[in-house]
Every structure is written in C-alpha cells, then in structure tokens.
Design brief:
Shape: globular
CATH topology of the largest domain: TIM Barrel
Mean pLDDT: 88
Helix content: 40-55%
Distance between the termini: 62 Å
CATH architecture of the largest domain: Alpha-Beta Barrel
Structural class: alpha/beta
Bound molecules: ligand C2E, magnesium ion
Largest sheet: 8 strands, mixed, barrel
Number of domains: 2
Low-confidence stretches: 1-5, 165-170
CATH superfamily of the largest domain: EAL domain
Radius of gyration: 23 Å
Strand content: 15-25%
Length: 425
Amino acid sequence: MNESPTYVANRDSLLRDLEHYISDHLTEGKKLAILLININHFRQINVVYGYQAADHLLDEFSQRLHKLSRKQDYIARVGNSEFIMVLPEILNEGHVTLAAHKLLSSLDSPFSLNGHKHKISADMGIALFPDHAVDIQSLIQKAELALLTARHSADAYSIYTSKTQNIEVNNWDIEDELRNAQERDEFELYFQPQVDLKTGQLFGAEALIRWKNRDKGYIRPDIFIPVSEQSGQIHSITWWTINAALRLIKDWPVTQPPLKVSVNLSARVLNDPELVSSVRSALSIWGANPEQLTLEVTESALMEDMDTSFITLDELRSFGLNISIDDFGTGYSSMAYFKYIPANELKIDKSFIRYMLDNEMDQHIVKTVIEMAHGFDIKVVAEGIENEATLSSLKRLGCDIAQGFYLARPMPQEDFIQWLEDYQA
Ligand code: C2E
Ligand code: MG
Ligand code: MG
C-alpha cells in the first residue's frame, strides 16, 4: 500500500504501478477491481471553506480509505477530487459490492471543515479485470463510464456493464447513425412535468429528446448530444426539438396562466448567429405565445463566451421568451456577474437536490441559491426531486418550482396529456 496519496499521482508512474498489478493477475488467473471515487461538489467546498480546509478534507478522506483497505490494495489521488483504488484478488462481483458499500460508509460520519462538522458525498465507478477489459487504460475508461452512470443515477456507485451502452457504440457510429436519425423519424420528444410549489398548480414541462435507434435501441441524450455538438449536428437537432415542442403544446389543455415548455440549448447553439431569427420564425410558424417558451442554457455554456451569450439572451428575452439557467451550481459562477444574468429562472442542479436531506452543505447551498435568486427576482426550479421529504424541504426553503421522478418521469406526449388531466382532477 502506498503512502499519503493526497498529492495528485503522476500519470506515467501510476500507469506503471497499475500495469504491474495486471501482469500479476494475468498469470495467476485472478480478478481485480478498479474503483474511481469522486468527492461531490469539491469545488464548492474549496470556494466556501477555502483551500486549506479542502486539502485537509482530502487528507482525512484518504486516511479513511486507507483504514478500510487491505494491505494489498492500492490508493492514489488522480484528480482534484478523484481517487483511484485497485483491489486485487477479488473473488466475484458481490465481493466488490461489499467493498464499495464499506468504502462509501466511511462518509457516514461528518468531516471537520474549519471547525464545523459537514457530511460529504461521493460517487464511485467500478470496472473488473478481466471481465470488462484486460488492459489498464481500458479498465480505467470503463470505470470512468461507470462513474458517469453513478453520477446520473440515484445510487452512489455503479459497476460497469456492457449495458452501460454508449461505450460499445463508438463516436463514429453515433455520428453516422445520427445523420439518418431525423429522416428515419427516430427522435421523439418526452415531457417531464413541473409543478408550482407555492400553489400546487401545474407550471409546465421540460422537453427532453429521446432517440430510439433501430439497432441499438434507446441512446441516452447525455451520450449523443455531446457527439452532435462536436459534429455540428446539434443545430438541426435543436431546430427539430424547438419545432416539435411548439407543435405539441398546441394540444395541451388550456390553463391560466398557460403551461410553459422548456427546451434545452447547448453551448454551440447559443453562439449560433442564426439562433434569434430561427427561434422567432419557429414561434411564428406555430403561432405560439413566446411567454410559453423557456430556453434552458447551462451555466457553463453561458460562461464560455459570456459577452456574446448575454447579448443573445437579452435579445431573446426582449420578445417575451423565458431564459433558464440549467444545472446551476456545477459551473464556474461568480457572484460578481449574478446580477447581470439575463435569466428569469434558475435550475439548481440535481446533484445538490439528491443528497440535500442528509448533507448539510448541499442544503446550505440550495438555501443560499434560492435566497440569492429571489433577491434578483429570479424564479428557482429544483430538478431531480425523488421523494416527498425532499419536496417538502424545498417548499420550506421557498423554492418556486419542482421537477423530478417523485412527481413524474419524462413521458411521451400522449401520456403527458393524460397525466395533466389526472393531476388536474
Ligand atoms: P437536463 O437538461 O439537466 O435534464 C434533466 C435530466 O434529469 C433529464 O435527463 C431527466 O430525465 C433527469 N431527471 C429528472 N428528474 C430526475 C430525478 O428525479 N432523478 C434523476 N436521477 N434524474 C432526473 P435526460 O432526459 O436523460 O437528459 C439528460 C441531459 O441531456 C439533459 O440534462 C440535457 O442536458 C440533455 N438534453 C436532453 N434533451 C435535450 C435536447 O433536446 N437538446 C439538448 N441540447 N440537450 C438535451
Ligand atoms: Mg434542462
Ligand atoms: Mg439540468
């Protein structure tokens, strides 16, 4: 077992060390597990408590990992808030699950940050040798993919499976298939309801794209959207989405005020000089009321080219559209620009909502964001609400709008309309 891993390991020497483990296992026919562990919201911890306290937390975290590990296990810090663990001589998957639970339980007791006790959370991705790959680079990549899955799921850890699709489909395939997707009518728009927490009334829905490929089945948007951003296909996908949304809301029940629909815009589209005119023409084609349309832009997309995006968003708002800042809290926001944000809505990222009940720091961040947003007359949406207790807690904190599996999962138009009718009844 190596010593004090709180400095970030040198990549080459790390790979050399890990290859050594693999070669041992090649000859002995044993299993080995690679675990990637990422401390959630580490950047916020840095900002709120300072670097020294954050470093201290890393030390304590790695000490806890060491305490729970066996002498043959390997631990190293591989990124700002990321650790790698190698567990040699694993018997089976159950054995790894047990280890994952044990390691994650080390987070149950709070950490000391500048004299205050705080609970932190982490996500973990796991890959097994030789089951998932036989060379170290691929094993790490598979563990990264599993970590991504964990980040998007309710569970804190995830073991790689070949079902963790994407992976098998390399970027080339996706790009090729995407070209035909629109022609073959493989896209569909799902809607996830949003409810006003103050009145209990329906507020609207977020439109989320679904792609059902004829061979591979459903491919997750967080997999194919980034590919389409790289290839430039995101533009046509976005126009499809906006038009589909405006067409479909015409069949929604009429309410007072009218239900809103939110469409996601990626960074590349935000900087498209055609954006404003395309949105305008879509609104006029479908005869839609601009107040019914909300465009969601992630905080990080907004910051990519702040000057240009602020101008574009101001222009969009000037003809009555709503702008929402998505995944708020995950980008590099600064209080200094907050008052200039050309938005009337802010969506707190689901990673804060997920653990807010037993994580004081997340709860504190949620509370602060709500107060700050209200100070600037910005409405706050919480996404990723998975249970009643979280919903009540957000209501108490003064959050305006709720979205999450607890209320409803994203669903196709027909089911959504049925859901609306049932909700109203
Ligand atoms: P997002 O815009 O932050 O959308 C919210 C995501 O959270 C959706 O995932 C939704 O299904 C999921 N979600 C909602 N409630 C819960 C919950 O209670 N628990 C959990 N664990 N998840 C919840 P989805 O549909 O897979 O979309 C993922 C991301 O892909 C979106 O994140 C958005 O960034 C992107 N995306 C989806 N549709 C489009 C689109 O039409 N255009 C663009 N540019 N991006 C899109
Ligand atoms: Mg969104
Ligand atoms: Mg979001």
